[in-house]
Amino acid sequence: SHPPCKALSASDRDSFGYKTMQARLPVIITKVINDVYQTYHNLPSTELDLKEKEKEAKHIISTISELRYELQHDKKFRPLRDSEDDVEEWNQTLADHFEGSSWFKAPWLFAECYLYRRVRETFALTQHFRDYDPFHEQKKTVFKSSQKAVVAIAVRLMSPSEDSTANGTEGLSSLDILVSQGPESVGTEEAFFELAQFCLWGNATDLSLLDNPDLAKVEELQKRMMTSTASSSNNSSTTSLDKQLEEQQQGKGGEETSELQKHEEKILANDLNALWAKVKGLRKGRVDFILDNAGFELYVDLMFADYLIRAGFASEVVFHAKTIPWFVSDVMPVDFQWTLDQLRYASSSSNDSAPFFDPSDPAEQKALRDLGAKWQSYVDQGVWRVTSDDFWTSCYAFYHLTSLPSAQDLFTDMKKSDLWIFKGDLNYRKLVYDCQWPTTTPFKKAIGPLGSREDVPSLVTFRTCKADVVVGLAEGVEEKMDKLANDWQVSGEYAVISFKQ
Ligand code: F6P
Ligand code: MG
């Protein structure tokens, strides 16, 4: 079916889509080439099938270089040539809707998905690199640079501090409250608001926006998240925008507000209250996360999922990962397990490689290991379930989840859930069909059948804004934002939390 409004496309030279096609994606592809080149160079001479592997690596490099050429010269899309399960669906769509279309003419969401699927094709057609993830090294590097924040969170979660055993909860952060109280009082409103915002802002550290990930910037962002104090105040975004504008005009940065409040003011549509009303009514329910990025974002997602379990709101959490390397940093099932392993085996050098996380303090090492062991036990007991389906990396918007024949098993299973949590920018774009909605369009309308059908559970999206489309804003917010920061829609500094009952 057709988009409900005019698709966003790179043919508009002022759009972020154009910038992405023209400048960002060639960099991403070049990094894939460099990664394979490195792997090729590092192949030990003792490697079995060395000659074969070298030949394949060289072939991958030239095929991906051709792909970059096709993109940069706006060549027509061609059918896929591999024999993966989803190939017919892709080729049928290409034939039915994109005959003669090309990178800069098509809706840019389609073109981008097609690009990652073409990268997949290249590896799928090899023998030795079939399961190779060309983004794995990048995911690792950035997660490694998050060590400080990862450790600090683990310590606070796993070992109650002196203060947190004091009477009352005044002055404590919600993380302390989480550990200091028995499980029956874990599910406080304070904890919910703070952890939900961690979960939201974790999305700001994804890799595809950071063409050259500035690791110091990532660390700074995480530090700011960590030093924030709990607040469940709910400023209407319009009032706080007025304040931000006023401060900008007076040249000050709003020093009196806490870090978390400052962050909260940047949530331009904020349905956290409605989400809290839903969550606190759940008793041993099922919550589904449609995951976005690996690394720090996944880590804070797990922290939020842990909270839902500990508080008794959920007894089952299902994580939907991607089946193939996707938009650089998205989680695949192997990334999920890899992450738990790095926590479980922190600072232990049982295998030949050095430990990934290696804080010097034994208490910190223990906190990481205990947290990893605990999360692993959730997986082993089936309390947490990791799954993946080709639907999430298909060319379809999420409107089609309810009707696409190949998505029916997935949809049938997901209907058993009480709440779907969609993480990140791309999942948001797929929810609202990535078209030119007026920013005041109600979220429920923008998500089509997911908003109107009775059999679709409650859903929420935690999204930092990194692409043109945004809906659910109050009257006047767009105009105010345009005055405040001209790149507000794409900078990743602002966010929306939109909820459908
Ligand atoms: O490149 C397009 C895009 O959707 C951006 O808008 C965003 O920076 C990135 O890909 C993915 O972001 P996320 O990981 O939050 O989905
Ligand atoms: Mg992503």
Which helices and strands, and how do they pair?
Elements: H1 16-41, H2 50-72, H3 87-97, H4 108-124, H5 136-144, H6 147-158, H7 174-180, H8 189-201, H9 215-227, H10 237-249, H11 259-265, E1 267-270, H12 272-280, E2 285-290, H13 296-310, E3 314-321, H14 333-344, H15 362-380, E4 384-388, H16 408-414, E5 419-423, H17 424-431, H18 443-446, H19 449-452, E6 458-464, H20 477-484, E7 495-500
Parallel strand pairs: 1-7, 2-3, 2-5, 3-4, 5-6
Antiparallel strand pairs: 6-7
Residues 206, 292-293, 327, 329-330, 424, 426 line the site of magnesium ion.
Instruction: Write the element-wise H/E pattern from the N-terminal end onward.
Output: HHHHHHHHHHHEHEHEHHEHEHHHEHE
Backbone structural class: alpha/beta
User: Mean of the pLDDT scores?
Assistant: 88
What overall geometry do the principal axes of the alpha carbons give? Answer: globular
Q: Roughly how many Å apart are the termini?
A: 25 Å
